[in-house]
Amino acid sequence: MLRFRVLASVVPLAVIAFLARGELFADAPCIAVADTSVQLTSLPWQSSLRVRFTTNPAKATVRVQIIDRAEAADFAVIDGADAAEGSACHSSQPPQLVSISRGFSSSDPVIYLTPDGPADYRIFVQSKTFSMLDAAALIVGARGARPNTRSASL
Asked: Could you tell me the residue ranges of all domains in the chain?
């Protein structure tokens, strides 16, 4: 009976610790940048950066162009048969976590996806695991929100 009580008290603590580290979401899209990595999380309270998306270019702080050539992209994601899953996020430091926000905060970068230029970043995505939104959120999380090139030139 004592073993059952110990097990009953340890299991919830282990689950909470597991969730707090985000290990359940280890398969979330992730990229390596220099000595660190940037990973998407669905837990907004864990993220150090939140990004939002808009369909209105006037509200955007960052423009991300979707292009059709990987060699012209600032960030390209291509799934291949030889790709090692999860290898991009192995680093000595924990990843910087980025979440896609549905709420409004004036400090969040607001991303506008467009097929046309000018743009702050250009992405190419041909993937079963990364969406266009994932790739845009990761590149903005990794490199930061630059001033919008369109509004900066006005």
From this structure: 28-152
Structure confidence by residue, pLDDT tens digits, 71-108: 999 989 887 644 445 455 666 778 888 988 887 778 88
Q: Are the beta carbons of 113 and 136 closer than 8 angstroms? A: yes
pTM tops 0.85: no
Instruction: Specify the pairing of strand 49-54 against strand 110-114.
Output: parallel
User: What whole-number distance in Å separates Cα of residue 45 and Cα of residue 11?
Assistant: 23
Residue type, 109: P
- Residues 6+ positions from 101 with CB-CB distance below 8 Å: 44, 50, 51, 52, 108
